[in-house]
Amino acid sequence: MLAHQDDFDVRWCKGTIAEEIFAPWKREIEKVGGEVFGGRRVARVELATGESNKRRSRVVATTRDGDVVEEETHEADVVVMATGVGAARGIIASSPDLRDAAGLRGFLADPDPDSDDPDSSGIASTSVIAVRLFLDVAVTLPCKSNVWGGFTLGASRGSKNGGVEGVTDTVGTEDVAGTFFDLCALHDEYRDLKKASSDASDDVRSVIEVDMYNAGSVIDLDDETLVEMALRDILTACVRDVAPEIQDAVVVDSSVLRFKDGVTKFAPGSAVALPRTTPAGLERAMFYVAGDHVWQGPGSHGARGLSQEKALVSGMAAADAAAAAFGRIAGEESRRATSTTTTRAPARILDVEPDEPHVAAAKDALRAADALEAFLPRPPPGFPPLF
Ligand SMILES: Cc1cc2nc3c(=O)[nH]c(=O)nc-3n(C[C@H](O)[C@H](O)[C@H](O)COP(=O)(O)OP(=O)(O)OC[C@H]3O[C@@H](n4cnc5c(N)ncnc54)[C@H](O)[C@@H]3O)c2cc1C
Question: Quick one: which of 353, 267, 265 has its CA closest to 84?
Fold first, then answer.
């Protein structure tokens, strides 16, 4: 948001990711003879280069039918782990071949924001709640994407802490913050809702999504309470002066999604812990990482942070790395390539716009300070850092 103030940091997909990205991708895979398995959870990975010393790697997954959990094993030449931070932590912890890799250590390390020791830096995760409100009033927000923070969640329900069981006084005001989006302005499928419709049963006039980050303290509240918080404590409090119609809005429909400890938390010191596409220590293992938590920094693609764009770009990078290892990228040498290996060009990944000048200048200044600090003698223990 800071780097490109006019257009947020990410591009929005004009439709659902399931329809626009995953369905065509699945069709392509099936066209070339591949099969996509659903309803399975990866439990652990055994690498061909690891302890098992097998010719191919193995992915062990579990299926669940009621209370019955079964394990199945899939052999693989290439493994791309693209599960998100929470699940990756579990898979790595139960996979001895992954646990020892230097480039994956950050998943298991306890994130300590005060430490400058790279080995003690971990990848933190946080809880997020997404509340989608379908309202009976056409609410016109001045901005499509908005940031909020500093509200007492539960206040609309009465007492000091809102009278909501389980919500402490400090929760709303200090710890939970987030974003809200006018989905009628962002998603084609809701574009025409604000126009009056002749269909009397079609009573939704606005769709607004309120996302709550760092929401561990309220994630166990029931849906009804969270919807009320989103509409009254957050949305109404933010926009009642610029969109007074919000005060009469009634929730016609809603959805509440919870992501418990499942979302990457980009905290100071976490950058060194993020995995590369090919994690350090697994250069020969044909094991790659994709997702919004892949390392970002100078030389990497400009898509940053918690975004679908970054997840997509990192997936393309992982696919290219795997294809290159098999000699399938035109111009890339590989001892696995044979005379019949077919090649393709690398994925075409469009770059993002350059940083705005003030952001570029701040980054340059910080890098210069870091470089200077590296030349200075280390201060004695307990001495405050120079920068
Ligand atoms: C509330 C909220 C709002 C957001 N809003 C936006 C936004 O407006 N714009 C934007 O660009 N980004 C947004 N993001 C961020 C975006 O959703 C993520 O950055 C993106 O989804 C990350 O993609 P991913 O593929 O890395 O991980 P995920 O989307 O988390 O996908 C991981 C997949 O792995 C599967 N999985 C998990 N465990 C296992 C296992 N053991 N075995 C097999 N599969 C497993 C999961 O089911 C899931 O399908 C938002 C995120 C949240 C939570």
Answer: 265
CB proximity list for 49: less than 8 A, separation 6 or greater: 97, 282, 284, 285
> Residues 272-311: pLDDT tens digits?
889 999 999 999 999 999 999 999 887 788 877 778 888 9
Token code pair at residue 180: 């809200």
The residue contributing the CA closest to ligand 1 atom 35 is 83
Cα 299–Cα 355–Cα 10 angle in degrees, nearest 5: 90
The secondary structure of 237-251 as a DSSP string is HHHTTT-GGGGG--E
Which residue's CA is the nearest one to ligand 1's atom 49?
83
CA 155 to ligand 1 centroid distance, Å: 31
Q: Is the pLDDT of residue 387 over 50?
A: no
Name the closest-CA residue to atom 26, ligand 1.
291
Pocket test for ligand 1, best of 60, 143, 306 (most atoms within 8 A of CB): 306
Residues with CB under 6 A from ligand 1: 10, 41-42, 82-84, 87, 91, 128, 130, 211, 259, 263, 291-292, 306-309, 311
For 84-122, how does the pLDDT look when each residue is reduced to its tens digit (9 = 90+)? Answer: 888 899 999 999 999 999 999 988 887 655 555 544 567
Calpha distance 243→340 (Å, rounded): 64
Instruction: Work out which ligand 1 atom sits closest to the CA atom of 43.
Output: 41
pTM (2 d.p.): 0.81
The ligand 1 atom at the shortest distance from the C-alpha of residue 264 is 19
Q: Which atom of ligand 1 is nearest to the CA of 90?
A: 41
Task: Give residue-wise pLDDT tens across range 1-43.
Answer: 556 666 655 566 777 788 988 999 999 999 999 999 999 999 9
Among all chains, which residue has been given the structure tokens 């490109």?
4
Strands ordered across the beta sheet of 68-76: 40-46, 57-65, 68-76
- Judge: domain 37-123+270-353, CATH 3.50.50: yes
Domain extent listing, the chain: 37-123+270-353, 125-264
